[in-house]
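haha ok so turns out i had the wrong file open the whole time. this is the CORRECT one, sorry everyone. sequence first:
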Amino acid sequence: MAVFIAVPFFFEEIGPSGPVTHTVNGTSDESLFHNQLIPTLQQHGCVDSTIFMQDGTPPHNATPVKQLLNLHFGNDRIISRHFPTAWLSQSPDPWCLLAMG
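then structure:
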């Protein structure tokens, strides 16, 4: 049961010639979660009831990303490599949220 759907986020900006897509890295991943995703969950009042899942791509495993996720979701609500509940490395979904409620 979902309270709302978090739409896809894109790593791009408008340059002189139009949209420029950026490579995702640990810094951009952390920035996305810190500046967009977590505030959206907080606005909907569902951080404490959300299970966060992500695959094992290198940006997701950067130490600052893992620390930020652990701060907001705790080890028991994260399904990801390097956490107690691992997500399969060949998962078709890079990350998703399960809002339980």
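DSSP finds two helices and five strands in the chain.
again sry for the mixup
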